Records
---
Amino acid sequence: MTVLELKNLTKTFGTTVAAKDISFELNANEIFGFIGPNGAGKSTTLRMIIGALSPDGGEILMDGEPLSGNPHYKKNIAYVPGDVNLWGNLTGEEVIHFFMKVRGYTNIEKKKHLIAQFRLDSKKKCKTYSKGNRQKVALICAFLSEAHLLIFDEPTTGLDPLMERVFHEQLMHAKSEGRSILLSSHVLSEVEKLADRIAIIREGEIIETGPLKTLRHITRTEYIVKSTQDLSELQALPYVHHYMETDDGTHMRIDNDSIEDYLAKLSHYRPYHLETLPPRLEDIFMRYYEDRRKLS
């Protein structure tokens, strides 16, 4: 079941095209990673989804219905931006209570549990909070919500590694409850760990969409080789990249469509150790961006 669908969504600011023909679908009970560098159009797209910006073209559908014909769609969305502003003279708990009151949430035990999990000193006024603590307040409010679509825009900015882990645990718990998550981030390891599918955005355009396992064709596989013979000649081959000799062996990345040729060539060097490292999302992302720059 499709929870959210974007069809050719476009937004311009003067002569700047912030989003151009953005199209993707978010399915029920799915974590969808939306990745790209700062300025690529991620936040603009998310703000159009939540109604903070009006698109210049295209259409947004939730549960198959256009948002333009459903004035109450926002009750099914919880959104956390990358930089949260709160009411300075209210305590963290007062802000959380306010959002619970406005949206009709009554699960006090869950509120206490989340405050404890995120280690938030909820009795302090928000004006004393660091960026990370303000982020915690917003995340707690989102996970307390009963919205079936959770949208996070760079949500772990300002969080320490322990709190990042708590966020990841809560995200997976929300998914287990049947909710759908749209996660925008430039932290590629985070998206790789959590997302079922990803979309890569570059200069306002989607350039690739799909499950991570099907995107590995646009990257290279890393090999660690040990041999008694000199392997340095291999770095002259056109499909060998990032050749590097280290204490644990010789590292090199091979174009996936040339692996058969590489292994045939490597056999002449009689390796006694051969280790393969799977492509990472970071490799996919950077390879795709490098290739697109060469074409542009």
---
Amino acid sequence: MGRPAKPLISRSATVAASIEIIDTEGMDAFSLPRVAKQLNVSTSSLYHHFADRRELMTEVAKELMTGATVPEYSSGTDWVEWFVELSLNYRDAILRHPNAALVLVQFLPRDVLTRTYERCARILEDGGVPAQLQVVILDGLEKLALATTLSDLMRDPVGSTEVFPKVDERRHPTLARALEANQWSSRELFVVTIRGFLAGVLGLATTPVSDESLRDLLGS
């Protein structure tokens, strides 16, 4: 499709309009014609800035992640607490745009966050984390934050505080007792999960797994 001779809109305005549509109307309502209507331009005008829907969605994903504040770090900062705070900020950024959460799964390229990953790796190095465990932590934290937050968003009804819904204490007595004993909110459970993951990975530093036992574990 040919592009108009003069741009009528900006990339940032298009991304902002896209997020507004997704936030208020949901992903099903999103399309290039719908965005063009929101901006009061023709659909062809969007092609000045975006080759196709995928490129626009990638920019939307990038914009959403800029809402995740990277905490300040200085000498003496507890690196575990720093990563807990970063993970919480990542979670909060997703929760601010619940309808757009799946955009991050499909369209967020990791290369746009390489600078942040580099900073994280330096903090891990400063904290004495062995180099062979740093990618395990960086990869795992991102996946945990995204997966657990999506799980929270997909509860029915949306926003429900029930961890496991429809538990019958007669049919599921052990689970019912566990739920009754749980005193943590979903946010607190998220923090516990992050801390548990970090503690588990750090345990590998003191009890390293041999290549042979790792192959046995993976079944290869």
---
Amino acid sequence: MEKVNFFDNELFTTKNEQFFLIHKTKIKKLLPAADVQHVGSTAIPNSITKGDVDIQVRVSAEQFSKAEELLSSLYEGNDESIKTDTFRAFKDDTSNPPLGVQLTVIESEFDFFWKFREVLLKNKNYLEEYNSLKKEYENKSMDDYREAKDQFFQRLMKTLEFKNCKE
């Protein structure tokens, strides 16, 4: 059973931001029109993190197939994740830190990663709740943590803060 461990994000802030910028540059070279954003816990000060960096690459529906093809030249497809006509996940588990890349069509059903970041940045109570959830699952099953995390974000998507989040 894979166990989950968390760290204070402040331990990695500078390194993770530099890491993000390196990958953003690579992605923008291939996809100049893409909106490339640092998302996930490493993008949120005072958060607890597994230490991996998450990037959301947002493209138009017309660009999606080409973007998927080009990102496949940089990263491994994440076969554990869902794959749709508007969403594709990639990863690089060998990088330090590990990297996750979420390719989404702008305004599609999976174009929410940046919204989660914004809501957590602006709402201390939600961030504290999310950090508490992580502490509860420290050194426990990764699958159980992912299920609890999914429930947390499903609830967050129903809030006014999330619904009113605009670009």
---
Amino acid sequence: MFLTKTVILKIANPDNDLVETMQKYSDGMNYTSKVLFDNGKPMGAMKLQKLVYPYLRENLELKSQMSCNIPRQVAGCYKTLKKNKAKWQRVEFSPTSMTFSYKRDFTIDRDTVKITTINGRKPYSILNYDYAAQYFDGSWEYQASKVVLHNDGEYYFHLSIEKEIPDKEITDASTFMGVDVGINYLAVTSTTDKKCKFFAGGEIKNLRNHYKSMRARLQSKGTLSAKRMLKYISGKEKRLMRDVNHKISKEIVKFALENDISVIGLEDLTGIRNTTVSKVSKKNRHTHSSWAYRQLQTFIEYKARGVGILTHYVDPAFTSQTCIRCNHISKNNRNRLNFRCKKCGYENNADLNGAMNIEHKTRDFRYILESQGYLSATQTNA
């Protein structure tokens, strides 16, 4: 199994060569995008490269590896459009990002990244931090990486790294933890031995309600400045949620380590947006449908993988309606944050009861696999 990460390092001394290279790279992306768009349908990267390579090299004076990276990126972008069944449209690229291949057009150590620009290979100092030192210890392999112009006007090197880590089998696991994600509590965890932790979401919920009110006022105005502000608010809200999800996922994995957890159970939330929208009032649909449930789970998954903890996704059906004590299922068992079983009278926090059910389903999966001998066969065929 491979663990991949992106380490963001600030470039301390960007110069005109770097800026001009990024501009020409963007020009090359847009020229290539026009060629592909005029073709009327996606095409393979190699075929596209043959059509645009001479122009990229001779007219834009881009280096050889850049002239190979550009058609690969553009071809991939249009394939994604087709895969997502989006309207066929020409994609425009801004001069905010360019991709480099390790060794061919960049090398790096803890303090310096050497990048191929239009005026040759140049060294740039990077502001490194103690947390990043671990990624320069020789155990990680460097992959194609990017120089990115952030919204703060500074240039950063997004270093992509990869490391192979030993595979673990779920049948070797003995301790489990379920994680229920939501809005009132962003996450609630419960372990096999009934230890739990709550991650409150009240402050974030109030802040997002504030953004919601601002959006309503700006949308009613409809002016150009209002539209610009709407775009700004949207970006700020996404950055807020991403930061919150990073922090919570880090704390969840830390809690799992402290309790010697082998497997973290999560709900398979595929299609959660469509299901949720149909069940909540129109007034609350944006809050529910835009909540970054899946992002939080993804962060938990890769952080857990990095410390040797497995993750497993379970069917979310009835986890919020099932009594953990007697297994009685009823919609009436849950009333907002309260859970009270209509059959046996068991009472608990509703989200904690859900986390306990997720842990139980994860643990059941492990023992079913072991008893039926499916796991080894599945891994053999993988």
